[in-house]
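Lab notebook, bench 4. Still working through the backlog of constructs that have no structural model yet. Next entry is a single chain of 472 residues. Request: give me the structure tokens for it.
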Amino acid sequence: MDIDTRMREVELEIISRRPEHSVDLALDRMTELVGLLGDPQRSSPVIHITGTNGKTSTARMSDALLRGRGLRTGRFTSPHLVSIRERIVVDGAPISPERFVAAYDEVIPYVKLVDERHPVAMSFFEVLTGMAFAVFADTPVDVMILEVGVGGRLDCTNVADGVVAVITPISLDHTRLLGSTVEEIAAEKAGIIKPGAVAVLAQQPLGAAEILLRHAVEVGATVAREGVEFGVLSREQAVGGQQLTLRGLRGTYEDVYLPLFGLHQAGNAACALAAVEAFAGVMDDAGALDVDLVRKAFAKVSSPGRLEVIRRSPTIIIDAAHNPAGMAATAAAIEEAFTFARLTGVFAASGDKDVPGILAELEPLLTDIVVTRNSSDRSLDPEQTAELAAEIFGEDRVQSAARLDDAIEIAVALADEPVAETGPGSGGVLITGSVITAGDARRLLGPAGGELPPEPPVNQPSRHSFTAAELS
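Model written out:
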């Protein structure tokens, strides 16, 4: 059987398990699985990342800085945009189909043993987490960067103990699972802060900050707070991104170019920098990072599906924002970085999200909106979305389409319509509402079917030397 066929079979087998959104928060199944696998999560130190928004971007930035220091990295993030292999990344590249299949074949006998011993079978996400641990241990990597799936305390990634715990901004999301207030959600996310760790905290709502600080004190963790111990000292708009001065835990870093838009991404960069400085201090008592290393690493960072310009003429942006706080950050970044005479939205969201809240954040930004559905069975029906959008935008600003490709075609035509005093070509399209919507759009509009390329090296010599076969 050829590898592409086998890869499709494995992906279908994983997907056929309890889906990612059907979460049964518990650590017993995962604890048993990693025990059977020989505790691969302990094979290297961990930087663990949770929060409501910004986790994946912060993970990618941390990864770039660590690779710049010559460390071999393993990164586990979710969800994926286009390919399931994006979730398990070694040295900036998604693992190959061959390695993905091999990892599945390695862990599935143990997964089935766990299934037999528990009333609830292991989920899609738990199996992938086990595979990631196995890959990182087998490689081996020098450091794992793990993004929490949901919450923190009972998330299956929390069988690992992070020497650094990063908590990005907390807001309301997954309230059915985590609680209806930011304080309740913060209590769940605080669970990744382990005894003796360094807790890197992004700026938080007051109630969330109090919960996180109290937990850190209780477990004896060291705390680093954005805006106090580290942060963004200055930022200016630059072509394709922004120019930053960052204050880290161990030094100040000037003239740092970040090819991403928005104040929220500057904050993510500050958190990533503090996390890597903290990690360096924990592992080898290092001082400030080399400023040229920091500049080179951040200059090559990408965050696909996060305010990503995927086409020009008209400009088409895809963004994975899927809750009101995330959409507020997206809207602020677009208003700051772009000057569209008109901006048409293409919108598809999951039915279990705060769709009215998300649409309310978009309304001041958009001239009009085309609502549709994405490829997920959780996608809200376009007719229902249109009714919600009409209450916020007014019926005359809302159109609907049954398919995403048709919605994009309508939006492009609207964006190309001439605007008084500016003429044609002054409009743009924003495709948003869900990670799945962003991924679907990337498949339709991006090169190579939208699959993410390997991230560029950071031009720092590695402490290791590996063969091509080892890297495959």
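Notes after review: The chain has two domains: 3-18+26-171+179-303, 308-447. DSSP finds 16 helices and 17 strands in the chain. Flag for follow-up if needed.
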